[in-house]
Amino acid sequence: MVSLSDPAVQSYILYSAILALKVLVMAFLTSRIRFAKKVFANEEDAKPSKRKVILDDPDVERVRRAHLNDLESIPAFWILGALYLTTSPEAAWAALLFRVYTVSRIIHTIVYAVKPLPQPARFIAFLIPMFIKWYMGIAIVSNYISAL
Prior knowledge:
- The protein has one domain (7-146): Up-down Bundle (Four Helix Bundle (Hemerythrin (Met), subunit A)), CATH 1.20.120.
- By secondary structure, the protein is an all-alpha fold.
- The chain contains five helices and no strands.
- Helix 1 (7-37) runs antiparallel to helix 3 (58-85), helix 3 runs antiparallel to helix 4 (91-114) and helix 3 runs parallel beside helix 5.
C-alpha cells in the first residue's frame, strides 16, 4: 500500500517537485538567452526593439533542445516512479534511484545548455536516467506480469 508517510513516497514527491521546477526554469533560461542576444521567435516580441524574427540561433536552440529533452524524459519518470512505488520497493533504494535520476537530469542540462561539454558528458548524463527508467519499468512489469 502506498502511503504519504512512506519515505520512498516522500522521496518521490520531493524529487518530482525538483524536476517540475527544473522544467519551469528551462523556459526562463530560454527567455534569458533570447533577450540577452536580442533573438526573438515572434514578430510582436521583435517589433519593439526593431529586430527581425530569428528561429535558428544556435544558443537559443541548444537550450530549447535541452528543454524538449526534459519534456520527453521527465514525464516518463513521473509515471514510472509513481507506478514503481506500488511495487513496495525498499525505501533507501527507491530514494537513491529518484535522487540519482534527478541529479543526472540537472547535470544533463548543465553540460548541454548551460556550460556545454564535449561528449561523452551529455551522453552519460542522459544514459543514467534512461537506465533508471528502464529498471523501474521492468520492475513494474515483473511485479504485475501475473495480471495478464
